[in-house]
Amino acid sequence: MISTKGRYALRLMIDLAVNESENYIPLKDISNRQKISEKYMEIIIKDLVKNKLIKGLRGKGGGYKLTRIPSDYTVGEILEAAGEQLAPVACLLPDAEPCNLKNNCPTVAMWEKYNTITHDYFYGITLADLT
């Protein structure tokens, strides 16, 4: 299940794409348009900046903007940058401990196929598609 943080990260990125300009977009403006508290947006923005999906500028004329054009972002990368785990089961997470039961697990192939479908779906949708 995608958390509120992941959904809000998508909304924030869509807002930046739709309102893209030469200028940085103040967090207050994004927050007001999206009806999301500035405090919560700040938490999300830290992850997006850390993953270089957006950049920020402090002070007068400051705010946030995309680092690439909207068609160069995928929903999957945005969700993962916001901390979402797209894998359906823990043993398929990128940093998962090796599972001793994997070779004899009757469900692992099903979960791997589901994981591939989910990954391909979210990585096949761009930010431009959502705008």
Can you tell me about this structure?
The chain is mainly α and 131 residues long. It has a domain at 4-86 and 126-130: Winged helix-like DNA-binding domain superfamily/Winged helix DNA-binding domain (Arc Repressor Mutant, subunit A). Helix content is 48%, strand content 6%. It contains 6 helices and 2 strands, in the order αααββααα. The protein has helices spanning 4-18, 27-34, 38-50, 75-81, 108-123, 127-130; strands spanning 54-57, 63-66. It has a two-stranded antiparallel ribbon with strand order 1-2. A hairpin with a 5-residue loop joins β1 and β2. It is elongated. The two termini are 23 Å apart. 18% of the residues are buried. The model has no long low-confidence stretch (mean pLDDT 93).
How would you summarize the topology of this molecule?
Blueprint: H1 4-18, H2 27-34, H3 38-50, E1 54-57, E2 63-66, H4 75-81, H5 108-123, H6 127-130
Antiparallel strand pairs: 1-2
Helix pairs in contact: 1-2, 1-3, 1-4
In N-to-C order, the SSE pattern is: HHHEEHHH
Question: What is the correct CATH architecture of the domain at 4-86 and 126-130?
Answer: Orthogonal Bundle
CATH domain topology of the domain at 4-86 and 126-130? Arc Repressor Mutant, subunit A
Query: Strand share of the residues?
Result: 5-15%
The biggest beta sheet reads: 2 strands, antiparallel
Approximate helicity band: 40-55%
Question: SS-based structural class?
Answer: mainly alpha
- The CATH class label of the domain at 4-86 and 126-130 is Mainly Alpha
Overall mean confidence score, pLDDT: 93
Which word captures the global form? elongated
* SS elements, strand count: 2
Radius of gyration: 17 Å
Subunit organisation of the chains:
single chain
Strand order of the largest sheet: 1-2
Straight-line distance between termini:
23 Å
